[in-house]
Design a protein that fits this description.
The chain has 220 residues and is of the alpha/beta class. 35% of the residues lie in helices and 17% in strands. The strands form 2 sheets. The protein has an 8-stranded mixed beta sheet, sandwiched between helices. It is globular, with a radius of gyration of 16 Å.
Length: 220
């Protein structure tokens, strides 16, 4: 599916996990820029309920388990420029998506992880250690996202990993804050701001091979 916009470079994108909070915003943001968007979802009925006004061609909707249906994932990746991940914290999904995207010749995978996996502002302290006392799950979350990041890196595919703190259903910031590379940005980011940054990462090479963060300015 595609819509018109003023974006000069049009991309063919696959959004994996298009029915979650982030995934829906990725689809919306990508379409608003005029990109051609396909989706890979586990449940087609849920997808159709989430997008009641949209007219999707069957050739743009792939149904399967992103962790285990390798053939479906590869089919969805074929002919795409970039894969955008609307789901994180699952190393099986990250591995399958990266492997099949690489095999299909996709130029880049933009994944979503967590702020636990970047550094504090001092550039020395891993962020999860900074918050381990006040937020006990920090180390576990760090290792969970780390498995996903390692799985992606091990395939050799070009990647960007967006590492937000907590995500929320707040309005889009105006302007959206510029991302930081491998440093903490702030405590919250809206799904819409996250999608904006991830589609930016799909469009440009500035953050290729990097872990990036961003925070929202309109969080209350």
């Amino acid at each position: 599916m595609s819509t018109a916009s003023n974006t000069s470079q049009k991309l063919s994108l696959l959004v994996i996990g298009a029915t979650g909070g982030l995934g829906k915003c990725l689809v919306k943001e990508a379409l608003s820029r005029g990109h051609s968007v396909s989706v890979l979802v586990r449940n087609k009925e849920k997808f159709e309920k989430d997008y009641p006004e949209a007219k999707w061609s069957d050739s743009n909707v792939f149904v399967g388990n992103a962790a285990s249906d390798s053939a479906i994932v590869k089919q969805g990746c074929t002919g795409k420029d970039v894969v955008l991940m609307g789901v994180g914290a699952d190393d099986a999904i990250a591995r399958t998506a990266a492997e099949q995207a690489k095999a299909a010749g996709v130029k880049k995978l933009v994944h979503v992880a967590g702020a636990t996996n970047v550094m504090d502002e001092d550039g020395v302290t891993p962020l999860w250690k900074k918050y381990a006392t006040s937020w006990p799950p920090a180390e576990r979350v760090y290792h969970t996202h780390g498995k996903c990041i390692d799985a992606i890196r091990n395939t050799g595919i070009n990647y960007v990993v967006f590492c937000p703190a907590f995500m929320s259903n707040q309005p889009k910031s105006n302007p959206v804050a510029a991302p930081k590379i491998n440093r903490e940005s702030g405590g919250f980011v809206s799904f819409e701001d996250a999608a904006h940054v991830m589609v930016d990462a799909a469009e440009q090479s500035t953050w290729d091979g990097q872990l990036i963060t961003a925070a929202s300015t309109r969080i209350q």
